[in-house]
Amino acid sequence: GESVGLHLPTLSVQEGDNSIINCAYSNSASDYFIWYKQESGKGPQFIIDIRSNMDKRQGQRVTVLLNKTVKHLSLQIAATQPGDSAVYFCAVFTSGTYKYIFGTGTRLKVLA
Amino acid sequence: DTAVSQTPKYLVTQMGNDKSIKCEQNLGHDTMYWYKQDSKKFLKIMFSYNNKELIINETVPNRFSPKSPDKAHLNLHINSLELGDSAVYFCASSSTGAYGFEQYFGPGTRLTVT
Description:
Distance between the termini of chain B: 34 Å
Largest interface: A-B, 24 and 23 residues
Number of strands of chain A: 11
CATH architecture of chain B: Sandwich
Order of helices and strands of chain A: EEEEEEEEEEE
Strand content of chain A: over 45%
Number of domains of chain A: 1
CATH architecture of chain A: Sandwich
Helix content of chain A: under 10%
Largest sheet of chain B: 7 strands, mixed
Shape of chain B: globular
CATH class of chain A: Mainly Beta
Order of helices and strands of chain B: EEEEEEEEEEE
Radius of gyration of chain A: 13 Å
Number of helices of chain A: 0
Number of helices of chain B: 0
Radius of gyration of chain B: 13 Å
CATH topology of chain B: Immunoglobulin-like
Oligomer: heterodimer
Structural class of chain B: mainly beta
């Protein structure tokens, strides 16, 4: 079956450094990719998305990179701040099957 | 205004009981979902409704029954609760007509079965 995995369950970064969170997916037909942030005690919150016809998209302090050849997705956070501490999920949507699959999550810890 | 709301926020109950969780969204979205998040933060989709019709029904026990009275509401009823049902349940909604399919999540309902 389809799977979406994250390479690191926990990532610790120094405040001010850049963070990179990775995600691998298995279905080459997937056409929409999303990153979510989940703070403690809250529901996941949309951060940024990218369609399969793009390989890079930038937001405010965040960039998502998509490599369809190796089925890999990454989220880059510039100048990581304490408020970035959370669990980050990648999610993959396949419009043909209407399947929406979340990755296992990476906990980002920002060290002061 | 809360975009996606769930009630109750906490639910503590005994094994064998029947309980319901309610969800409402005021975003005008046409698709709603229920997710279960376990203690390891793994998010698993359970159901999805589009315009009040069930479109995704993952392998969940038939003790779980979703009901969508209208596009803005998706309730989850659970019969004969078991210890393994303890988790956080999230409701979410999305719009299929928008650029993307990002989902908006509710605050979650923490269900504890004793």
